[in-house]
Amino acid sequence: MTITNLIKTRRSIKMFKSDPISESDLMIWLEAASYAPNHRMTEPWELLFLGPDTRAKLNHKTDFGSAPVVLAILSKPAPTSFERDENVIASSCFAQNFLLAGHEEGVGAYWASLGALPHNREILGVPEDYDVIGVFGVGYPEEVPNAKPRTPMISKIKYLS
User: Fold this and answer.
1) Which of 47, 50, 64 is nearest to 12 (CA)?
2) Is the pTM of this model over 0.90?
3) Is the model's pLDDT at 1 over the cut of 90?
4) Where does residue 118 fall: left (phi above 0), alpha (psi -120 to 50 degrees), or beta otherwise?
5) What residues does 112 pair with on adjacent strands?
6) Distance CA 58, CA 116 (A)
7) Looking at 89-144, which runs of residues are DSSP E strands?
8) How many other β-carbons are positioned within 10 Å of the β-carbon of residue 52?
9) Coil, strand or helix at 132
């Protein structure tokens, strides 16, 4: 599959099969994700793998679609707001790379923002100066939704003189 097709066919998955994801496959996808662009090789991402007790405390409306793996991606703190923004951007690129690497192998994910809520940050034990990029349910899709229409790119472009 070309990278363009990979990008265009990735979807947010709401329900997952119970088939397990091997730890070795996860590590391959996470290693690939670590090649995300990041300023001065800061590699600002950190991961939390969530077990059943933590998942239950988060009380997600579908328990992350019954995904066999749930993980949170965090972004490390930085000394300035500009560097914090750089860290968040790099960690988001890491997340996208992870999603694409898994998708190439038939795995889907659901990216939830609930980890950023104050009470969920506490459940996850996230230090105050860290950012939560997302909590991800990862697994083999029960079903893959159709693509939603996108706004034509030409309407998003401005040319400056």
Assistant:
1) 64
2) yes
3) no
4) alpha
5) 135
6) 11
7) 108-112, 131-139
8) 9
9) strand
* Sole residue written with tokens 């939603």: 148
pLDDT digits (tens, 9 = 90+) for 29-69: 999 999 999 999 999 999 999 999 999 999 999 999 999 99
Backbone angles phi and psi of 2, in degrees to 5: -75, 160
Strand order in the sheet with 69-75: 45-49, 69-75, 131-139, 108-112
Neighbouring CB atoms inside 10 A of 16's CB total 25
Q: State the DSSP string of 1-31.
A: --HHHHHHH--B-S-B-S----HHHHHHHHH
Distance between CA 76 and CA 88 in Å, rounded?
A: 8
Let me know if 115 is exposed, middle or buried by CB neighbors in 10 A (0-12, 13-18, 19+).
buried
> What confidence tens digit (pLDDT) does each residue in 87-124 have?
999 999 999 999 999 999 999 999 999 999 999 999 99
Angle at which helices 23-33 and 81-104 pack, to 10 degrees?
130
pLDDT confidence bin for 141, thresholds 50/70/90: very high
